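Budget justification aside, the reviewers requested a transparent look at the raw inputs and outputs of the sequence design task funded under Objective 1. We therefore reproduce one unedited record. The lines immediately below are the structure tokens for a 439-residue chain.
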């Protein structure tokens, strides 16, 4: 094999040395002061939105914060990224009138001490949508997806079997009023129905960080946290089910424990069972009857946030998450549907990008790899909001659940370098080559 000349590439303040093999598409990385295998994410990630790139249109209350992303790949091959913008980590509507309410003012002051700027935000944050028709290489400018009178957060989209799109999100207002909401599109996202509540009552007072899933035929399952049982002292998980592709929902069951349950995620296994993972103690639950009842395996104690379960074509169940113990985005891997898990130390998982906050969203690509979108920092200082960014990165999960490979995202430094070296194009991943060095 012919080896190209080694290039030095600047990435911020770090120097990345790239050694390329065109025919094998093998690339190695070195960042000064770091172990090569530990910093692969720096060259392989690509900025989607940032201080100088793809900024949302200015509006009253926007201070540079972008976060809480979602990503979806449509049957047409189009990719969709959704995210929230605002003044800060959370941007509830804030006006002179709202300031007069004692409870709202008390909640604002508590967050103001953490870094929430005192800026007028009459409608709070809003949700945006972006499209890519070249598998993530380039993106359309962010357009407003939804802007209710609350802080609209965590938008995620799923394409159903009939081509309809379902967008789930939640809206937040002072003092601590959160409502799960969703809306439908029947034309590929060109237009959307008005946002609605999944249950008949105004609410529920809950929210989630991931999309719903579609089971057989018309059935949808959506899990969200909230006070679904007002008599219970802790937050619970509501399992909402639709038998008519989202035209209506019913509360199928409530999952509750002797501790707070937050940010649930659900996936379906090949045998039809549902598996759910929950922040923060890492609770795991299974359902054999479409969400009617759940078996709880006990808390793992893994200290996770923003969990996302993805069942991969190679039979591995991947649990992407943010780690309180180690920080950054990590992934635990199960070869047997969640009964046993692999990962360094068996507690916090393989490092995907250890330098960032930890909130991400995965989707499966045509080649079986995973594309992640994620937030750069979750810092609470005003300056963190003004330098916020969304990144994209690719991950290959080993067939034996024994590890992962970090691969270049379309538009990343590593992808550009490998293409310049003449590496072959790979189908289904934005025209970027497979770079297979193992972690």
């Amino acid at each position: 094999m012919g080896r190209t000349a080694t290039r030095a590439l600047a990435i911020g303040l770090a120097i990345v040395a790239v050694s390329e093999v065109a025919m094998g598409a093998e690339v190695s990385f070195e960042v000064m002061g770091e172990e090569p295998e530990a910093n692969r994410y720096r060259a392989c990630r690509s900025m989607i939105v940032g201080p100088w790139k793809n900024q949302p249109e200015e509006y009253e209350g926007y201070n540079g914060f972008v976060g809480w992303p979602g990503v979806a790949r449509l049957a047409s091959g189009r990719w969709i990224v959704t995210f929230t913008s605002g003044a800060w980590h959370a941007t509830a509507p804030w006006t002179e009138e709202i300031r007069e309410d004692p409870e709202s003012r008390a909640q604002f002051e508590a967050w103001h001490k953490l870094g929430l700027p005192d800026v007028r935000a009459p409608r709070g944050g809003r949700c945006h949508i972006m499209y890519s028709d070249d598998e993530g290489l380039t993106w359309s400018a962010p357009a407003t997806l939804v802007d209710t009178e609350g802080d609209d957060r965590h938008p995620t989209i799923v394409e159903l079997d009939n081509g309809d799109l379902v967008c789930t999100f939640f809206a937040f207002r002072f003092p601590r009023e959160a409502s799960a909401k969703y809306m439908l599109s029947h034309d590929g996202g060109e237009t959307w129905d008005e946002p609605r509540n999944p249950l008949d009552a105004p609410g529920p007072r809950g929210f989630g960080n991931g999309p719903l899933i579609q089971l057989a035929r018309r059935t949808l399952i959506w899990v969200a946290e909230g006070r679904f049982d007002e008599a219970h002292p802790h937050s619970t998980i509501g399992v909402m089910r639709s038998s008519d592709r989202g035209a209506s929902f019913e509360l199928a069951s409530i999952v509750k424990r002797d501790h707070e349950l937050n940010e649930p995620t659900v996936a379906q296994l090949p045998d039809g069972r549902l598996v759910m993972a929950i922040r923060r103690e890492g609770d795991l639950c299974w359902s054999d009857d479409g969400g009617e009842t759940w078996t709880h395996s006990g808390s793992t104690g893994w200290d996770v946030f923003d969990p996302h379960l993805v069942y991969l074509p190679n039979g591995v169940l991947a649990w992407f998450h943010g780690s309180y113990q180690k920080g950054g985005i990590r992934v635990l891997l199960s070869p047997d549907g969640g009964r046993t898990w692999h990962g360094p130390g068996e507690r916090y998982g393989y490092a995907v990008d250890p330098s960032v906050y930890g909130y991400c969203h995965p989707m499966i690509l045509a080649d079986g790899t995973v594309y992640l979108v994620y937030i750069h920092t979750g810092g609470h200082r005003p300056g963190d909001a003004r330098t916020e960014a969304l990144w994209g990165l690719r991950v290959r999960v080993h067939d034996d659940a024994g590890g992962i490979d970090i691969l270049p995202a379309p538009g990343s430094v590593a992808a550009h370098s490998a293409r310049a070296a003449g590496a072959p194009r790979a189908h289904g991943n934005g025209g970027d080559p497979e770079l297979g060095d193992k972690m």
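Confidence is low (pLDDT under 50) at residues 1-36, 426-439. Residues 102-114 form the longest helix (13 residues). Computational costs for records of this kind are itemized in the attached budget.
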